[in-house]
Amino acid sequence: MTPQERADRSAAAMWAADAASKWLGMTLDKVGPGTAELSFTVEDHHLNGHRICHGGYIFTLADSAFAFACNSYNQVTVAQENAITYLTPGQPGERLTAHAVESARTGRSGVYDVTVTGEDGRKVALFRGLSRTIKGQHFEESQ
């Protein structure tokens, strides 16, 4: 099995059970070994009292991209710590995209950087996720 096939199968298994990302309107746009891209369109129910995208939804988009990136090796991996910096607001009707990239992976620990961008390419937020691999696989695979 190629690394891309493993990433695709891991993502398919996770996506099938990911009610939260689907409920928020996200789509899984791309996945690869140590990478993932998810997006959603900012709708009225995503807006806060300032009529901009609520930061919690931007965080969730970035966190979901992080999850798919760090789980792309068919090893169950969870978040250990996450941090986000908001740079510009997400606007009503705008499609936001989270691009996750593996920065480091050693043993059971990983570091992933996620950039959330708006339709015009501007940076909306920067997110860093630290992962920890635990027992289990997303699909049966001989080691």
Number of helices: 3
**What amount of the residues lies in strands?**
35-45%
Biggest sheet character: 6 strands, antiparallel
* Top-tier CATH class: Alpha Beta
Task: Compute the number of strand runs.
Answer: 6
What is the string of SSEs from the N terminus onward? Answer: HHEEHEEEE
Assembly context of the chains: single chain
Mean pLDDT: 97
Tell me the layout of helices and strands:
Blueprint: H1 3-17, H2 19-23, E1 27-32, E2 35-41, H3 55-70, E3 77-86, E4 95-106, E5 109-117, E6 123-133
Antiparallel strand pairs: 1-2, 2-4, 3-6, 4-5, 5-6
Describe the structure.
This protein is of the alpha+beta class. The chain has one domain: Hotdog Thioesterase (Thiol Ester Dehydrase, Chain A, Roll), CATH 3.10.129.10. It is built from three helices and six strands. It has helices at 3-17, 19-23, 55-70, and strands spanning 27-32, 35-41, 77-86, 95-106, 109-117, 123-133. It has a six-stranded antiparallel sheet. Strand 4 (95-106) and strand 5 form a beta hairpin. The radius of gyration is 15 Å and the shape is globular. It starts with a helix and ends in a 10-residue tail after the last strand.
Give me some keywords for this one:
single chain, 143 residues, alpha+beta, Thiol Ester Dehydrase, Chain A, 6-stranded antiparallel β-sheet, 3 helices, PaaD, Thioestr_dom
